[in-house]
């Protein structure tokens, strides 16, 4: 069970979630400890440069969609790192708000 398991469960049930992610991988978009609001993905697939809560190779991330190739999404951080490719079924929500 990863750090985002209960947020993912809430998103899957249609609820929005708020939390304060820690770390420096999204600096410039999200600073460590900022409050983020993530809403369920819904019927609209994510687009390039959107921040999503997802799983890539079993790991949970609140990272950017770096590229879209058909029904696959490349996920990475805001510092140039790439986590890998995932599918829509592994993208659970989109970040809609970042607060101090």
From TrEMBL:
This is Peptidase S24/S26A/S26B/S26C domain-containing protein. InterPro entries: LexA/Signal_pep-like_sf. SUPFAM superfamilies: LexA/Signal peptidase. The lineage of its organism: Bacteria, Pseudomonadati, Pseudomonadota, Betaproteobacteria, Burkholderiales.
